[in-house]
Design brief:
The chain has about 110 residues and is mainly alpha-helical. The chain has 2 domains: about 70 residues, Up-down Bundle (Ferritin), CATH 1.20.1260.10; about 35 residues, no CATH class. It contains 3 helices and no strands. The chain is globular, with a radius of gyration of 17 Å. The N and C termini lie far apart (about 50 Å). About 10% of the residues are buried. One of its GO terms (molecular function) is metal ion binding.
Length: about 110
Protein backbone atom coordinates (compact mmCIF):
# COMPACT_ATOMS: atom_id res chain seq x y z
CA UNK A 1 0.00 0.00 0.00
CA UNK A 2 1.22 3.51 -0.84
CA UNK A 3 1.02 5.58 2.34
CA UNK A 4 1.60 8.98 0.71
CA UNK A 5 -1.72 10.69 0.02
CA UNK A 6 -3.79 7.96 1.68
CA UNK A 7 -6.46 8.25 4.34
CA UNK A 8 -4.15 6.16 6.53
CA UNK A 9 -1.50 8.88 6.25
CA UNK A 10 -4.09 11.44 7.37
CA UNK A 11 -5.11 9.17 10.25
CA UNK A 12 -1.50 8.69 11.36
CA UNK A 13 -0.91 12.45 11.25
CA UNK A 14 -4.04 13.05 13.34
CA UNK A 15 -3.04 10.32 15.80
CA UNK A 16 0.48 11.74 16.08
CA UNK A 17 -0.91 15.22 16.75
CA UNK A 18 -3.37 13.92 19.34
CA UNK A 19 -0.79 11.84 21.21
CA UNK A 20 1.71 14.72 21.13
CA UNK A 21 -0.84 17.16 22.50
CA UNK A 22 -1.89 14.69 25.19
CA UNK A 23 1.76 14.39 26.27
CA UNK A 24 2.10 18.15 26.66
CA UNK A 25 -1.25 18.49 28.45
CA UNK A 26 -0.41 15.75 30.93
CA UNK A 27 2.98 17.30 31.69
CA UNK A 28 1.24 20.63 32.28
CA UNK A 29 -1.32 18.91 34.54
CA UNK A 30 1.55 17.25 36.44
CA UNK A 31 3.17 20.61 37.05
CA UNK A 32 -0.12 22.00 38.38
CA UNK A 33 -0.59 18.96 40.63
CA UNK A 34 2.93 19.46 42.03
CA UNK A 35 2.20 23.11 42.83
CA UNK A 36 -1.04 22.10 44.56
CA UNK A 37 0.76 19.44 46.60
CA UNK A 38 -0.65 16.37 44.80
CA UNK A 39 2.67 14.65 44.22
CA UNK A 40 1.15 11.21 43.63
CA UNK A 41 -1.26 12.62 41.04
CA UNK A 42 1.63 14.47 39.38
CA UNK A 43 3.55 11.20 39.13
CA UNK A 44 0.58 9.51 37.45
CA UNK A 45 0.29 12.37 34.95
CA UNK A 46 4.02 12.13 34.17
CA UNK A 47 3.84 8.37 33.70
CA UNK A 48 0.82 8.73 31.44
CA UNK A 49 2.60 11.45 29.44
CA UNK A 50 5.51 9.08 28.87
CA UNK A 51 3.11 6.49 27.48
CA UNK A 52 1.68 9.07 25.10
CA UNK A 53 5.22 9.84 23.93
CA UNK A 54 5.69 6.18 23.04
CA UNK A 55 2.46 6.19 21.05
CA UNK A 56 3.46 9.39 19.21
CA UNK A 57 6.88 7.96 18.37
CA UNK A 58 5.25 4.85 16.94
CA UNK A 59 3.04 6.92 14.65
CA UNK A 60 5.99 9.08 13.60
CA UNK A 61 8.02 5.99 12.75
CA UNK A 62 5.35 4.98 10.23
CA UNK A 63 5.24 8.54 8.87
CA UNK A 64 9.01 8.67 8.22
CA UNK A 65 8.42 7.23 4.75
CA UNK A 66 6.24 10.20 3.75
CA UNK A 67 8.00 13.00 5.63
CA UNK A 68 7.58 15.20 8.64
CA UNK A 69 3.88 15.59 9.46
CA UNK A 70 4.43 19.25 10.32
CA UNK A 71 6.53 20.34 7.34
CA UNK A 72 6.41 17.59 4.74
CA UNK A 73 10.22 17.59 4.76
CA UNK A 74 12.04 14.24 4.66
CA UNK A 75 12.90 12.87 8.11
CA UNK A 76 14.70 9.88 9.58
CA UNK A 77 18.43 10.58 9.66
CA UNK A 78 19.71 13.33 11.93
CA UNK A 79 20.68 15.67 9.07
CA UNK A 80 17.16 15.38 7.65
CA UNK A 81 15.60 15.81 11.09
CA UNK A 82 17.60 19.02 11.60
CA UNK A 83 16.42 20.41 8.26
CA UNK A 84 12.80 19.53 9.09
CA UNK A 85 13.09 21.13 12.53
CA UNK A 86 14.57 24.30 11.05
CA UNK A 87 11.80 24.40 8.43
CA UNK A 88 9.16 24.06 11.15
CA UNK A 89 10.64 26.74 13.39
CA UNK A 90 11.14 29.06 10.42
CA UNK A 91 7.50 28.63 9.42
CA UNK A 92 6.43 29.54 12.95
CA UNK A 93 8.28 32.85 13.12
CA UNK A 94 7.86 33.91 9.49
CA UNK A 95 4.26 32.87 8.77
CA UNK A 96 2.29 31.25 11.56
CA UNK A 97 2.78 33.62 14.50
CA UNK A 98 2.77 36.82 12.43
CA UNK A 99 -0.51 35.69 10.84
CA UNK A 100 -2.03 34.82 14.20
CA UNK A 101 -0.85 38.13 15.62
CA UNK A 102 -2.53 40.02 12.79
CA UNK A 103 -5.80 38.16 13.36
CA UNK A 104 -5.67 38.91 17.10
CA UNK A 105 -5.04 42.61 16.44
CA UNK A 106 -7.85 42.73 13.86
CA UNK A 107 -10.22 41.09 16.34
CA UNK A 108 -9.31 43.65 18.99
Amino acid sequence: MELKGSKTEDNLKAAFAGESQANRRYLYFAQKADVEGYNDVAAVFRSTAEGETGHAHGHLEFLESVGDPATGEPIGATDLNLKAAIAGETHEYTDMYPGMSKVARDEG
